[in-house]
Specification:
The protein has 333 residues and is mostly helical. The chain has one domain. 77% of the residues lie in helices and 0% in strands. The chain is built from 15 helices and no strands. It has helices at 2-12, 17-24, 29-54, 63-79, 84-95, 100-128, 130-139, 141-152, 154-178, 183-198, 207-229, 240-255, 264-275, 280-313, 327-332. Helix 6 (100-128) packs across helix 10. The N and C termini lie far apart (56 Å).
Length: 333
């Protein structure tokens, strides 16, 4: 969390928190509640979509377990970036006895679907709001300098990445080949399950439901930005296209490996809103603080409740396990 605190301080340095809290006092909490409830619907939709990817293997996990696992994912990401995907697969492995590597493979497919939808939305924003993006960079030359510095070292970064991947691949290949401490057998099974999980989309029977969930999830992420606009008198006149722009550019702040986008998301949103006439201090700061803070509060509360409730929710629960006996063995019996 120290990284998140540093990034948050950088985003808000120089701002007057007294004025920000005065601006927050004008919040219309009904709109905030509507945005949070709609967010819960999106997270539940994500859980249902995940269940669709597990169905081809014969798994029928409880919807409650899927939802709790998703909320624990978000909660874990607040502490350690990108740890949530591992955490939610671990939750299903514990309570539903679903192969960790197989469920991780389905998570990869989920992320690919999210990237495809987001890329389509981002293309619309970049095509129509390119002047806004240019002005953000013009107003923050340090961001452009950082990107140029990254470009100057891109060859070294790629070489280091290739070397690291090569080292990991060689180590795993050697471990499998020599079967160190039985590790080879376990890795073969894990890789097989991971591949199965990633290929589950080919055997998905409810593909249109999967597509519908993917569209709904991303629509809600965008529309909650607009609902939060209505919660403040200084953003209530901003339209859907502005909300879409804030959603797309703000997402890049979440992609950066910071805990839950803390600091990076705030910085981008404050800068983008400023280009549409919202005063950075205190209005932009207040909007970013409330909208991001309410989402984090949701993740923290529901995530902690999920970890407490799940052992009781699954007391004496016996998950339905698929019959994975090979066909030739069945015939022999």
């Amino acid at each position: 969390m120290s990284l998140g605190a540093l990034l948050f301080w950088l985003a808000y340095r120089g701002q007057n928190f007294g004025r920000i809290f005065d601006a927050i006092s004008e919040v219309r909490w009904g709109w905030v509640a509507a945005a949070v409830l709609l967010s819960v619907a999106a997270h539940y939709s994500r859980a249902l979509r995940w269940g669709l990817l597990l169905e081809p293997f014969g798994y029928k996990p409880r919807r409650g377990n899927l939802f709790f696992a998703v909320m624990i994912m978000y909660f874990a990401n607040m502490a350690i970036p990108r740890s949530g995907e591992v955490a939610r697969c671990g939750v299903l492995a514990k309570y539903e006895r679903i192969s960790f590597s197989r469920s991780l493979g389905t998570v990869v497919i989920e992320r690919v679907a999210d990237v495809i939808v987001f890329a389509a939305v981002a293309a619309v924003v970049f095509a129509t709001q390119i002047d806004v993006i240019g002005r953000v960079l013009d107003n923050n030359p340090s961001v452009l300098q950082y990107w140029q510095s990254f470009e100057n070292h891109i060859v070294l970064i790629i070489m280091a990445g290739v070397a690291l991947v090569g080292l990991v691949f060689w180590t795993l290949r050697t471990a499998v080949k020599r079967n160190w401490f039985g590790l080879g057998d376990r890795l073969r099974k894990a890789f097989h399950n991971l591949k199965d999980g990633m290929l589950t989309i080919a055997g998905l029977k409810k593909r249109w439901q999967f597509v519908a969930h993917s569209l709904f999830i991303n629509f809600v992420y965008f529309y909650t930005v607009y609902l939060f606009f209505n919660a403040f008198p200084f953003t209530e006149n901003l339209g859907l296209m502005v909300a879409l722009t804030v959603f797309v550019l703000g997402t890049f702040g979440v992609i950066v490996p910071s805990p839950g986008g803390i600091g990076t998301w705030h910085f981008i949103v404050i800068e983008v809103l400023a280009l549409y006439g919202v005063v950075r201090d205190p209005d932009g700061g207040a909007y970013a603080l409330v909208s991001h803070g309410m989402q984090d509060l949701l993740f923290a509360v529901v995530g902690m409740v999920a970890m407490i409730v799940m052992p009781f929710f699954n007391n004496d629960y016996q998950p339905l396990m698929p019959d994975e006996t090979p066909p030739d063995v069945k015939e022999d019996n």
